[in-house]
Task: inverse folding
């Protein structure tokens, strides 16, 4: 007769219910065009929760702030210096819905 070696390792697994991802259909990604731009950019967002649009510099200073009343927003960036900025979309509670990069160049 031979020797039979059996081993058993117990593994515990806990189930935690919760959100693990945000569905793109619930939070559609906005589009910014033209990007880069010297003067105006358009922000198109189909998110019904969008209430405010901010343009923020790389130090976090809010440079432009405007209410979002329609699906297509036109943003005047002529007074900004050339460089990298971020466009943030906020809901009515001030929660950030999205952050997108924007490059300003030219006059």
Result:
């Amino acid at each position: 007769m031979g020797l039979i070696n059996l081993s058993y390792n117990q593994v515990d697994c806990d189930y935690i219910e919760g959100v693990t991802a945000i569905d793109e259909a619930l939070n559609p990604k906005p589009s910014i065009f033209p990007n880069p731009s010297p003067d105006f950019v358009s922000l198109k967002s189909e998110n019904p929760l969008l209430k405010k649009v901010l343009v923020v510099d790389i130090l976090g200073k809010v440079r432009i702030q405007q209410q979002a009343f329609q699906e297509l927003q036109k943003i005047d960036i002529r007074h900004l210096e050339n460089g990298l900025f971020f466009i943030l979309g906020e809901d009515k509670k001030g929660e950030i819905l999205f952050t997108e990069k924007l490059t300003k160049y030219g006059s």
User: Anything to note?
Assistant: The CA atoms of residues 43 and 73 lie 5 Å apart. The chain has a mean pLDDT of 88. The first strand starts at residue 31 and ends at 33. Strands lie at 31-33, 40-44, 52-57, 62-67, 72-76, 83-90, 96-104.
